[in-house]
């Protein structure tokens, strides 16, 4: 069942228990903290990014190698994104945007490897990343601008008699940012992986159930699965980019709330 079930790939299970809080000592009582397959792939993602950057930038040659050039292009790509969306002042947030982009991109790419786990297919992970951005915007916005940060909810040039209508809309739109940011990433990754699993599972069932005829009948779903695999790689990269760009735009609101 697990082989063809499109939902089985998203199941989180414990690899080993860390510790238990509370309870009376009997099995199942208290709150157990465990190292899960999701945690494993998050650690693997961070470790891979760190190792890649360390290995490709350790030499710092005047004439860069291909590996060093890849890191430099990645740096310039994210730096250009930050400057274009949040201005030069936004470069203080470059480490945050760079970390988010590389983590989401690497996690999405790992998710395309057979039998690997896709951490961004779980709403709790994407929501945590979104809340990190949301709280950063709020905290920095008030620290830098004080009460003037609230100008964000009063668009410039709007007549005063319309403000009682516009301001609540702006507030609701602002508060919904972590939801839209997390659901967009989670939904695209989840839907894509389910669709891919359905087509590949359908092809496998046809081959197993129809024998030689099944091989011929499975050609179409297999071709669809190949096309969807390429599309999923593209979606994984695009979603990392979209998350990073929106992060820059939200940070720009904290830096320039009156714009």
Automatic annotation (TrEMBL):
The keyword Membrane applies. It is found in: Cell membrane; Membrane. The chain crosses the membrane at residues 33-56, 93-117, 123-143, 202-227, 233-251. Its main location: membrane. InterPro entries: ATP_synth_F0_asu, ATP_synth_F0_asu_AS, ATP_synth_F0_asu_bact/mt, F0_ATP_A_sf. It is a multi-pass membrane protein. It holds the Pfam family ATP-synt_A. Keywords: ATP synthesis, Cell membrane, CF(0), Hydrogen ion transport, Ion transport, Membrane, Transmembrane, Transmembrane helix, Transport. One of its GO terms (molecular function) is proton-transporting ATP synthase activity, rotational mechanism. The keyword DNA repair does not apply. Key component of the proton channel; it plays a direct role in the translocation of protons across the membrane. Belongs to the ATPase A chain family. This is ATP synthase subunit a. It comes from Devosia marina.
